[in-house]
Amino acid sequence: FITGQGIRFISLNFGCRDCRLRDINDFEFSPALRQLTDQDGLVNLANCLPLNKQYTYIFQGYSQAFDHILFSTNLAKTGEAVIIHVNAELSSGIRASDNDPIFAWIQ
User: What CA–CA distance (Å, rounded) separates 63 from 60?
Assistant: First the structure.
């Protein structure tokens, strides 16, 4: 977790492999996410997808990456993710949430 930001994670530890799960609701360029990816060495699996598939939220017509799943470098080598676009593209009256879920797996 990041003490100053108050972000806490569900941490799954597979020996030297680590996965952080959290509904961070922040942009990939935010200081909190930058610390996790640049300084702590975690890999944002959503960033491994094609650019036109990386969004989890649409605000005023602009697609944005607002949700993330972070793996350690070792775990990211065997991990994959997909963003399931079931909410963001729908109007607010018929969607279950304003964000799309990220589904990740380890091979």
Answer: 8
